[in-house]
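Below is a typical protein record.
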Amino acid sequence: MRKAGILNRHLAGALAELGHGDGVLVCDAGMPIPAGPRVVDLAFRAGVPSFAEVVDGLLDELVVEGGTAAAEIRAANSAAAGLLAERLPALAFVPHEELKELSRGARLVVRTGEARPYANVLLRCGVFF
């Protein structure tokens, strides 16, 4: 068993398989999960784990070139919008319906227990060199 880092074996394995340009959708409990990508559902109960905890944990493990979030997050969930703007300098905003379409191309979906609206982001993996 790992001493530190991500302990969930399904998530750790999925992250190890990602490559440059792959998409990782981090989503709240209400986001429709597209058919196709590998799904790691971390939701335990409402709010656990939080969107912030999962995003921070993934950013500790991955090189991320940028991300895409729903434009609606800025008005409906300013805390999550602020978190993403602070952590992802290359953050783009699109309408929520477009984010759902883009999420179909994700290689991995990580579902959080977040129960606040629009707490979703599509991360684009980079390379460490």
Notes: The chain has a mean pLDDT of 94. The radius of gyration is 13 Å.
